[in-house]
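We examine the record.
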Amino acid sequence: MARLRSRLAQLAANRRLVVALELTALAIFLGALGWALRDVWADAGPRLRHADLVDLGLALVVLAGYYLVFILGWMRILGAYGIQIPYRVALQAEMLSMLAKYVPGGVWTPAARVVALRRLGVRDTPLILASVLLEAGLSALAGVGVFVVGLAFVDGVDAPLPLIAAFGVLVAVLLYPPIFRTVASRLLRPFGAHEVPALPGRTAFSLLAFYACTWPLGGLALFFLLRSVGGDPAIASIPFLGGASAIGAIVAVLAIFAPSGLGVREASVYGLLLAVAVEGVALGAIVLNRLAITVVEAALLLVGVLLIQARPAQVVEDPRPDPQLASGEGAA
């Protein structure tokens, strides 16, 4: 067993081998996915070529709004840790990390934020990484909640509900303050962490509610994408579509072999969209969704860079973070 662990550690240390294995697994998965959907492309292709530009434009605007609002959550987490950053800095760092997901290796998303903030004077790498973990955990937990609520508005959803519920419970347990402090401190010890504090309870629950409100924006963007390729989803399905977007994002993070969850995210969302759309519409919508996400992230990154160049940012690391955070009282 010890020899096996040593061998696995050596394999993990070989970045080139890891990347090669990831790309091989991704190619196999995409090939299988394309083969499984080969009969659907005949319907989806014309829908994509004749997509309604008005609905597509509305989807891009709403998706951009989702990202612009989502960033506020990360800023709030950093603020609780005593790191105050201007919005334009958060915008650049967040979008850089989003695009970094396309680079094989799995470490570039958090690394991009660390690099972006280090350039602006923030040197506390463990707290930056902890903020990324909290953002991912809280938004995922909120997304599961939105998905469950959304099921009340749509019939005939084929989803692995026990697995989704188990994932939500697992995330909630990991976010529980004593467990989060222990896990995060050990996980981030190689980066110099001693004890990573948990968020105050009021802050954590307010962020959970905040992220729960952001997912319906993603659902609204998906609503317009479905319409753009000839779908006719009900307005009442928007909460469900927001939950479907959340499940897709969660699967994208868990599928470590696929950069940015490429293909895996689309497959999971496609399966859920079949509850509100025919196969050709669902396939067309997920293709446009991937393109829209990439275009919006790149455009917002450019905006962030231009804003910083126009007005150089000053980042403040407050030595006096949230009093509840420092004392450990009221954590949740």
User: Anything to note?
Assistant: Residues 41-327 form one domain. The mean pLDDT is 82. The CA atoms of residues 27 and 266 lie 15 Å apart.
